[in-house]
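User: Teach me something about this protein's shape.
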Amino acid sequence: MEKQTHKVGKRKTAVARVYIRPRAGEEGVILVNGREFAEYFPRPTSRMMIMQALEMTSLVGRYDIKINVKGGGKSGQAGAVRHGISRGLIRIDPALRPILKKAGFLTRDSREVERKKYGLAGARRRYQYSKR
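Assistant: First, the predicted structure itself:
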């Protein structure tokens, strides 16, 4: 597999476009919106979430990964990136599907914020009742 693979990952309102290609240098580089992924995701849990798919398949450092992500917050973006990387790895090697499927990395987390309703303080919260 010498050419680039492109897949989209989603979570909540975040969308990540993931481009995976075989590494050019000695170690694979992960760039998120043009920045090093450790710089873009300063929280260790977000970085761990992104690396899970690569660590589970023993492919850390084997690919250069370029990611464009937008929408949502950092946590949702990290989930979208993991989803996109998992889908891209399956396109490269379909034998990885059972491993990633069992871990739940191929399921899009479709939970979104419920909209605020008319006459309420939030989606479901009511204003405080006043007897007098």
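Now, about its shape. Helices lie at 37-40, 44-56, 74-92, 97-103. The chain has one domain: 5-103. If you'd like, I can walk through any region in more detail.
User: That's plenty for now, thanks!
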